[in-house]
From TrEMBL:
Lineage: Bacteria, Pseudomonadati, Pseudomonadota, Alphaproteobacteria, Hyphomicrobiales
Superkingdom classification of source: Bacteria
Domain Amidohydrolase-related: 46-426
Xref: Gene3D superfamilies: Metal-dependent hydrolases, Urease, subunit C, domain 1
EC top class, as a word: hydrolase
Domain Formimidoylglutamate deiminase N-terminal: 2-45
PANTHER family associated with the record: AMIDOHYDROLASE-RELATED DOMAIN-CONTAINING PROTEIN, GUANINE DEAMINASE
EC number(s) per entry: 3.5.3.13
Pfam family, one: HutF_N
One Gene Ontology MF term: formimidoylglutamate deiminase activity
Origin species: Bradyrhizobium symbiodeficiens
SUPFAM superfamilies, sorted: Composite domain of metallo-dependent hydrolases, Metallo-dependent hydrolases
Cofactors named for this entry: Zn(2+)
Alphabetized UniProt keyword annotations: Hydrolase, Metal-binding, Zinc
Name the record gives this protein: Formimidoylglutamate deiminase
Length: 452
């Protein structure tokens, strides 16, 4: 058992002063506000619950910054994808473990305490399955265990190169599964995470480009009631191709033909009609927004104001992991809306309300729903995932309550996070993860070889 005392903490009911949190077996056992610190309490200033990155492709952290050379023609998501394929084809299981470990260390240092790993790098470099179908998934689990981050593993089903069941691209050969092979992969993946504290599993049909309707229907039961994540409407070309195939836009098709409900998370959903926005919000599914990656890839800007106005739920993910941070994703989300609408504080929940707090609350709730976490936050029964802010940071000086969140998200480029507990273990102290140096050395060795 351990006891923490916070001068101020964000509880489900709002900000509270002089909060003692008791941690037992990795979970929060008790939360008491309005009490003075007791002997033996570890004391900190401002505490927040950790957030989830609900959408990550860990291996892509290794290629961050390597696709910034303009080609002969217009650079788009589709040209970036070719760089990604080349990088993915070169990676060994040890490379994946090294890259994922550093990524998860960085996530924890930046305030993410759970990751939804949309995992589609399944097979050997020639496309043949490993003797253990979950060889790569096990490396993701190892990285999560080493770093301390909680893992929601989302094995991805990927069978085709485009709509109408088109043959896959050769660069996709490490991703491709039949329904039967994917069922074997799911069994092996459940075993790979079975001993990992706090871990759970869902499924991720990659996209309507990569999965036929019959395959989608066949694999959904493999989630066993767990979360279902799918990319949709990220790019205009994808929308046009989906219309040519089905007469429906991707989000529209899913809402009409798939059992979309609160278990589902539709990733990106950037390009929707007004009717789709309302129908998506009413479905109860989560919009998985990845603002940094969506900006990096030139995807477009999600209709966040309209979606929230219709009662929609969103969480944030780090996707390609080109830049990792809670504050970075939430800031980019709001700034995109400001550029689109030419207004300020677009996503604030009302007059006089903090934009940072609104974004934080939505991301906490949406991430928990998307990753099937029934209890999150600084509340008894929740996993003890806690982030403290450094009140000596110039952008937090003199700030309390929501103003501290605004200072962190909108004014602190780095260094605002002091400590992080993941599953009750303090893994980050004074802004540094305990494995930072070791993880960097392993990552650098792997990436030097891959780049060369």
């Amino acid at each position: 058992m351990s006891r923490l005392h916070f001068a101020s903490a964000l509880l489900p009911s709002g900000w509270a002063n002089d909060v003692q949190v008791v941690i037992t077996a990795g979970a929060i056992a008790a939360v008491t506000a309005g009490v003075q610190p007791a002997a033996g309490d570890e004391r900190h200033a401002i505490a927040l619950p950790g957030l989830a990155s609900l959408h990550s492709h860990a291996f892509q952290r290794g290629m961050a910054g390597l696709a910034e050379l303009r080609g002969d023609s217009t650079d788009t998501f589709w040209t970036w994808r070719e760089t990604m394929y080349r990088f993915a084809l070169a990676m060994t299981p040890d490379d994946v473990a090294a890259v994922a470990t550093l990524l998860y260390v960085e996530m924890l240092e930046q305030g993410f305490t759970r990751v939804g790993e949309f995992h589609y790098l399944h097979h050997d470099r020639d496309g043949a399955p490993y003797s253990d179908p979950a060889e790569m998934a096990a490396r993701i689990a190892q990285a999560a265990e080493a770093s301390g981050i909680a893992l929601t593993l989302l094995p991805s089903f990927y069978a085709h190169g485009s709509f109408r069941g088109a043959a896959p691209h050769d660069g996709q050969r490490r991703f491709i599964c039949s329904v039967d092979r994917f069922a074997e992969l799911m069994i092996a993946s459940r075993k790979a995470i079975s001993a990992l504290p706090g871990a759970n599993i869902g499924i991720a049909p990659h996209s309507l480009r990569a999965v036929t309707p019959d395959e989608l229907a066949a694999i959904i039961p493999l989630a066993n009631g767990g979360p279902v994540h799918i990319h949709a409407a990220e790019q205009v070309q994808e929308v046009e191709d989906c219309l040519a195939w089905s007469g429906r836009r991707p989000v529209q098709w899913l809402l009409e033909h798939a059992p979309v409900d609160r278990r589902w998370c539709i990733i990106h959903a950037t390009h929707m009609t007004d009717e789709e926005v309302v129908a998506f919000a009413k479905s109860g599914a989560v919009a998985g927004l990845c603002p940094i990656t969506e900006a990096s890839l030139g995807d477009g800007i999600f209709p966040a104001r309209e979606f929230l106005g219709a009662g929609g739920t969103f969480g944030v993910g780090t996707d390609s992991n080109v830049l990792v941070g809670v504050a970075d994703e939430l800031r980019q989300l709001e700034y995109g809306q400001r550029l689109k609408h030419r207004e300020r504080n677009v996503l604030s929940s009302g007059a006089g309300r903090s934009t940072g707090r609104t974004l934080f609350d939505h991301a906490l709730a949406g991430g928990a729903q998307a990753l099937a976490q029934p209890t999150v936050g600084l509340v008894p029964g929740a996993r003890a995932d806690i982030v403290t802010l450094d009140t000596t940071h110039p952008s937090l000086s003199g700030r309390v309550g929501d103003a501290a969140i605004d200072g962190w998200i909108f004014a602190a480029s780095s260094g605002a996070i002091d400590c992080v507990w993941a599953g009750g273990h303090k893994v980050v102290e004074a802004g540094h993860h305990r494995l930072r140096q070791t993880a960097r050395e392993r990552f650098n060795a792997a990436v030097r070889r891959l780049v060369a």
